[in-house]
UniProtKB/TrEMBL annotation:
It comes from the Bacteria. Residues 117-351 form the Peptidase C45 hydrolase domain. The lineage of its organism: Bacteria, Bacillati, Bacillota, Bacilli, Bacillales. This is Peptidase C45 hydrolase domain-containing protein. Pfam families: AAT.
Amino acid sequence: MIKKLHLQGSAKEIGFCHGSKGKQEVMNSLETYERLFYGFKNISWSEAKELALLHLNAIEKYDLQMVEEMEGIANGAGVDFEDILTLNARSEIALTNKGDIYSDGCTTMAITSPIINDTIIGQTWDWTATQKNSLLLLDIQAKSKPRISMVTEGGIIGKIGFNSAGVGLCFNALIADKRTNEIPLHLGTRAVLNSYSQAEAISKVANGQIAASASFLIGYDDGNGNGMAVNPEVSPFGIDYVGGDEGWLAHTNHICSEILKKKLKDLNELRFEDSILRKKRADQLIKASIATKESINEKTFERWLSDTFNKPSSINHFQNKNAPEHRRMETIFSIIINLSKRRAFLRIGQEGKFEEIDTMTEVTL
């Protein structure tokens, strides 16, 4: 089960409800990342907060309401603002040069025109098992913004989901050697989900605005039968689109852009035996379905995201006991989003059924 929170009002009101009603999930996140930062980075929580504060000036210029929402979460959960800021900058802190570099993983996929009429995106999210207890399903209605349905970790204001305008986001972490003090990745994901179009979404993560590197698979359906998915790899040096020219996309956790490779060094030490193999397997599954003229829909995505070929380093990921401890990830959740129909399906863990998450019609905000 995943806790659902319906949030509305001002940024501070949205944050306060998140923090108060999701307090246990926020506390779980704080415990997880304090342990990870110390165990793998040799960074104390106070040091992590200092690193997070380096981003504050950029965030205030980027979107002051994000600061207000994080303040609201802190007030609601009874913790310091810096604690919540640190959760939202956790990817950038994980990518410091001190200690072992680590980051979460996943496999993302998209199918759109001309292969099918709908635009469908989906992914697994692979991470440390303890964060299963931190998951929240947020239904957010902020003033003058689209309504958002998003799966996130307690205390983190941006992650994976879609909005009422037809913009959807799947997300892959990339591990590179350079970062800045600009906008943390998870705030970039929220900016995408605050957008009314694909073009607006791209403008929020382009031009070196984002502090670290990641793959943003951004789908969009305008509600009139027109849809498209694009996959910009985002970096402090700007973006580059990869794949997608034939109506399908797949991405994992290594840099694909030849342009970005000239500016960044890929530090994913398991890219050859994990990330690249998952990407090749995702490509293979999609190509096989296209070649056999299979009718591709949400059920097809369920099969793809449940694939255990090359287990434990499969699309549906299991812990690899032979990997370094900080890379022993497993699939925490999998999500399928049909942007044309404004509906999504979620599975927590590696087994069981995908259940529809109908947050936007359950409650009228």
